[in-house]
Amino acid sequence: MLSSEIARLRKLGVQGLLFQALNFLSVVTSGLMMWKGLCLVTNSESPIVVVLSGSMEPAFYRGDILFLVNPPDVPYEVGDITVYKIPGGDIPIVHRVIQSHTTNTTQLLLTKGDNNDGDDLILYNGMQWLERRHVIGKVRGFLPYVGYVTIAMNDFPQLKYALLGVVGLFLLVQKEQ
User: Which residue in 177, 168, 173 sits closest to 25, CA to CA?
Assistant: First the structure.
């Protein structure tokens, strides 16, 4: 079967290969445009995140996908589940707001994981409060366990490359209708 597909690709020639490459690029750019559009609509730099730890159990479990919004003029309230990122940190953190203070125009927050014993002060890298600008968004919905695919690809990079290879091969050998 693979040899027949290779023979078919040889018959297509350069023009056919170029057409398949453009198809692949259009799929990639469409995905990027949808992501950027979602970022604009939700006012969040990352409107979809995967829970990577058990710090928010039983509200959210490892592998849950969270959908975020970040309304610009709506203050965060105690009890809101937020996703924030500390400057210099690579991974967003999903925790609940346990205190909120407003000074002039800046809202200051203190967060804590539901499954953690103490607050997040130690995670703030010397800051006393989390500022609104550090918050990526507020959780508005979730899909349980669907994010395990992302976790598996991060834990096993070979799986990521194999999946990309299979998708790329599929796009190259698919027949146009």
Answer: 168
